[in-house]
Amino acid sequence: RALIFPLLIREGKPTPFFTFVLALLFCVFNGYLQGRSLSNYAIYPPGWLKDPCFITGFIGWLIGMAINIHSDHILRNLRKPGETGYKIPRGGMFEYVSGANFFGEILEWFGFALACCTLESLAFALCTLFILSSRAKQHHQ
């Protein structure tokens, strides 16, 4: 998302390069930590992929990702070319929560944490919850 979303935005305020680099470094570092945790330290019993915990987490991750992608699509297409000003997003999960993209990402990471059952994945899910819920509250206001 750190690479794709900024490249798909048609108009609007440009993302400062330093902010982009920090977001990219964060995603690379987090990906490394999650991957290292799963490949070197997590131990799963045979049949883990059939465990209800994994299946529920995977479904939560998949639904969260779908919500996130759809919400980003709605946000990117809010304004017509040349149009400015604030617009309230409609459709999808925006009918239920004002920060549907944030909700989708939070659901994604909690689904991932449930599927992985590692302390590292839970820590990232909680950090995502705290950071994005504060951003969602600001956007809602």
UniProtKB/TrEMBL annotation:
Segments forming a coiled coil: none
Gene3D superfamilies cross-referenced by the UniProt entry: 1.20.120.1630
Principal localisation: endoplasmic reticulum
InterPro entries noted in UniProt: 3-oxo-5_a-steroid_4-DH_C, SRD5A/TECR
Ranges for domain 3-oxo-5-alpha-steroid 4-dehydrogenase C-terminal: 14-141
Bilayer topology term: Multi-pass membrane protein
Compartmental location: Endoplasmic reticulum membrane; Microsome membrane
GO BP terms: cell differentiation; steroid biosynthetic process
TM region positions: 15-33, 53-71, 109-132
One protein family per Pfam: Steroid_dh
Top-level taxon of the source organism: Eukaryota
GO cellular component terms, A-Z: endoplasmic reticulum membrane
Family named by the database record: Belongs to the steroid 5-alpha reductase family.
PANTHER family membership: 3-OXO-5-ALPHA-STEROID 4-DEHYDROGENASE, 3-OXO-5-ALPHA-STEROID 4-DEHYDROGENASE 1
Protein name: S5A1 dehydrogenase
Lineage, top ranks: Eukaryota, Metazoa, Chordata, Craniata, Vertebrata
